[in-house]
């Protein structure tokens, strides 16, 4: 049985490796700030645990992270059960996020496409649809980046193979972006 200490050690090793991705993580944070300052919105998509990350991060933008500031435009494409089921039932699950990008995206917007493997077809299709619309795409991935790293405008490839470690890195990065963005929009009359 793997001990909890072994799990912690694996997590710490992931954190150390993440240092090598600092520049692109910071650049992506600046892109998010620019997108919102120019009136664009942030769309997010991913499967499974990454779907949860999408709605988690969207909630921090729309509501708050740690400080009071104006609401920020973000939509998780993973949450509307009618859209998800109608599209998957009538068309295909592979295009369930791309369809929403086509419906909602504009060239001011940015898509955060999350896939630990970088190979999930519905995430790749969403990234391609976003590029076709002139949107910026931040690929949040791992495992060498898969095809997502080739499609996205900029990619954060967590240098890990274990899905859980990659997901832990993703939410750490997502939270850091939330703090950075919040600082840029912070209403200094409130806390
Ligand atoms: O949370 C986990 C594993 O930790 C799973 O639900 C995982 O997200 C799912 O298997 C996803 O379908 C994996 O998709 P992806 O990250 O490779 O795009
Ligand atoms: Zn999980």
Automatic annotation (TrEMBL):
Its cofactor is Zn(2+). Its main location: cytoplasm. Its EC number is 5.3.1.28. Gene3D superfamilies: Glucose-6-phosphate isomerase like protein, domain 1. Binds 1 zinc ion per subunit. GO terms for biological process: carbohydrate metabolic process; D-glycero-D-manno-heptose 7-phosphate biosynthetic process. Substrate binds at residues 47-49, 60, 89-90, 115-117, 120, 167. Pathway: Carbohydrate biosynthesis; D-glycero-D-manno-heptose 7-phosphate biosynthesis; D-glycero-alpha-D-manno-heptose 7-phosphate and D-glycero-beta-D-manno-heptose 7-phosphate from sedoheptulose 7-phosphate: step 1/1. The keyword Nucleotide-binding does not apply. Keywords: Carbohydrate metabolism, Cytoplasm, Isomerase, Metal-binding, Zinc. It catalyses: 2 D-sedoheptulose 7-phosphate = D-glycero-alpha-D-manno-heptose 7-phosphate + D-glycero-beta-D-manno-heptose 7-phosphate. Zn(2+) binds at residues 56, 60, 167, 175. GO terms for cellular component: cytoplasm. Residues 32-191 form the SIS domain. SUPFAM superfamilies: SIS domain. It is an enzyme of class 5 (isomerase). Homotetramer. Catalyzes the isomerization of sedoheptulose 7-phosphate in D-glycero-D-manno-heptose 7-phosphate. The reaction produces a racemic mixture of D-glycero-alpha-D-manno-heptose 7-phosphate and D-glycero-beta-D-manno-heptose 7-phosphate. This is Phosphoheptose isomerase. The lineage of its organism: Bacteria, Pseudomonadati, Pseudomonadota, Gammaproteobacteria, Methylococcales. The gene is gmhA.
């Amino acid at each position: 049985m793997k001990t909890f200490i072994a799990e912690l050690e694996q997590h710490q090793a992931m954190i150390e490796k993440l240092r090598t991705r600092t520049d692109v993580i910071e650049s992506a944070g600046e892109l998010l700030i620019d997108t919102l300052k120019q009136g664009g919105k942030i769309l997010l998509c991913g499967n499974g645990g990454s779907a949860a990350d999408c709605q988690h991060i969207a909630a921090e933008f729309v509501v708050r992270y740690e400080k009071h500031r104006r609401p920020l435009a973000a939509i998780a494409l993973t949450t509307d059960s009618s859209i998800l089921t109608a599209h998957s039932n009538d068309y295909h699950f592979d295009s369930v996020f791309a369809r929403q990008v086509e419906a909602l995206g504009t060239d001011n917007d940015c898509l955060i496409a999350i896939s630990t493997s970088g190979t999930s077809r519905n995430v790749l299709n969403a990234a391609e649809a976003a590029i076709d619309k002139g949107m910026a795409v931040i690929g949040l991935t791992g495992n060498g980046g898969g095809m997502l790293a080739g499609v996205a405008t900029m990619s954060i490839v967590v240098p890990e193979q274990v899905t859980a470690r990659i997901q832990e890195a993703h939410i750490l990065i997502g939270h850091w972006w939330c703090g950075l963005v919040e600082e840029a929009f912070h209403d200094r009359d409130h806390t």
